[in-house]
Structure prediction request, 440 residues.
Amino acid sequence: MNMNELPLMPAPPTEKKSLVAHCFGGFFWGVFAVAVLSWCVDAWLAAFFDEQQGFLAALIKPGEDDLVHRLITSVTFLVLGMTANGFVSRLKEAKLGLQESQAWLNIMSDASFEGLFISENGKILAVNEQGCRDLGYSHEELIGHSIFDLTDLEGRQVVKEHVAGRLENTYFVNAVRKDGEKIVVEVRARTVDIDGRNLRVSALLDVTQRHKAEQNLRLYERQLRSMTTRLALAEEKVRRDIAIALHDTVAQQLSIAKLKLGSVLKDTSDEGSFDSLHEINELIDDAIRETRTLVFDLSPPILYELGFVAAVEWLSDMLSERHGIECGVEVVGGELLLDHDLRVTMYQLVRELLVNVTKHSGAKSATVSISENSGMLCVDVKDNGCGFNMSVVGPGFGLFSIRERLKPLDGKLNIDSEPGLGSTVGICVPLAKRGEPNAP
Prediction:
């Protein structure tokens, strides 16, 4: 069966006829004519064998036996004609209705944006126009063709598994056109049992362009995440350069000025000058402290000198001192050896989480747990703050930024929070194949 063999346009609507119209159609009048002709032939034969009676007399005034015979014959023909005419009329109506249904089915199938295939045991029985256009074959080339030969080797195995298992889920395979070009198709299929035959009805949608667009989108996302990571590392490098410059220039010059001012104070006997110089000395002390604080805020040297854990411990002490939040650090396992990029990135992420605690949670205490388990570095930041409902509030931009920065590292962000019960935010990244530890 070929869908293309159906009429191209729907047949006109079937005319509904009355019982009289069924009984007195053209077929009936043909049978009626046969009955009249039979009457005339019977009269001619009667006149031919009866020399005393003419044809006209035998026709108009037949004998009693002849009349009965002719009446029975004529009525029989008339009844048969009425019955046959009704049957033929209904048969014509059924045929027109079937043609109309087939025509609409043909239009619907050929107007579909999906390629429709009907197969049995992998052999194609019917296909619509869109299926032919997608694969570049004609109807004649596809009918009888194996549906397994329309994909590449990997896709062929997938199709066979779905056919054998009578699966109905949506899946994607690479189909091969007649010209050898590969296209990505979305397949939805269903097995239908008809008169003991297992027919596979498959709908194929060409999603090559969509697949390429999705691939490009994923590529752009990876590139964007990579650029974000490089930007964060570059920012950290700039911060470290500024911190080093402040430490090596401003802080050193202030320290030298303090030493020289101390010498002047020792040699000064004038009380008025001594008070002024002492005030200047205190201002220099404040400037030195602020400079050192600024250096540590920009890029703590301890991160590069003593490592990630020591930097997190220093950060927790600073937050406790500045914001009044009791913050502790728990380390499970031995010393962690992290490469430069991972060390910097993880420190930035933990700092972001602790800043969120101080800004939004209203917590009185927080704990940072650091552990290494099965090649994974896991850091959990837990607080006893107000918490939030994830289904209602959702993660803010800070958590979204953390999740995006973890993706290039194959890391994961886990959030567990309930209103009034605080929050726990976990970060896990793999440690394998990270290069040399403690790289500068």
Q: What stands out?
A: The chain has a mean pLDDT of 77. The longest strand covers residues 182-194. Strands lie at 115-120, 123-127, 171-176, 182-194, 197-206, 326-332, 365-373, 376-383, 412-417, 423-430.
